[in-house]
Specification:
The chain is of the alpha/beta class. It is built from twelve helices and seven strands. The protein has a single domain, classed as Rossmann fold (3-Layer(aba) Sandwich), CATH 3.40.50.720. The longest helix is centred in the middle third of the chain and has 24 residues.
Length: 272
Amino acid sequence: MNDGRRVVVVTGLGGIGRAIARRLGAGAIVVLADVDPAALNTEAGHLEEEGYAVVAQTTDVSEIESVAILAETASRLGPVEALVHTAGLSPVQASPEAIFRVDLLGTALMLDAFAEVIAPGGAGVFIASMAGTVAPQNSDLEQRLATTPTALLMDLPELAAATDPGTAYGIAKRANQIRVRAAALTWGRRQARVNTISPGIISTPMGAAELRGPSGDFMRTMLASSPTGRIGTPHDVAAAVEFLTGPNSTFITGTDLLVDGGAVASLLGTAS
């Protein structure tokens, strides 16, 4: 099917993914992708009831064949003008290995697959995290995270050494930021752009689970000392995605946008 409408692809059906689908999906064919077919079909039904044109595609972003099918499906529907990759796991949800497979490998596979089908003038946004911004930096590891072929990414020795989910999450999200930066060159050959957004603490089920977890007290302190003094909403992130996929950001690619209410700034201020 190709009726000339633009195609918007959104992976992950947490609060952020749902808000983005609604923000970008009017007048488009929205391709929703998630690993949970029941949740996927439920959300697709909600969007259809609200007047959106939706195609649901069960997708495991950590599997190359599944990602390839998603990219092929989307490209058959029309020009893929926007890809927003929100699928991911947080430290309270998964083991380090699972976090690396979904948050690190999944991002790399999506970057590779959609670099082949994104429309000229199109844009991708990959959801990273402020955890990647504040993660300890290692220039040698970062170079390898940015440039290691996707098929070899999971063999990096530092991944096996990360036995704590929080550490794994920080590495994976820092890798998202720098791997997308490197991929901007490839995407640019198709006259397309790609960036990351690094949300802070957002009021989603995942965010609520983290607030109940071992880092909850630290996160609440960070919120209280941040310049905005509040938790973020999915709509805050969706608004930033709309900007980075829209006509007012055509000179922006290969960069990361913090959407954290100033939480990182408050950490830096405390450290000084």
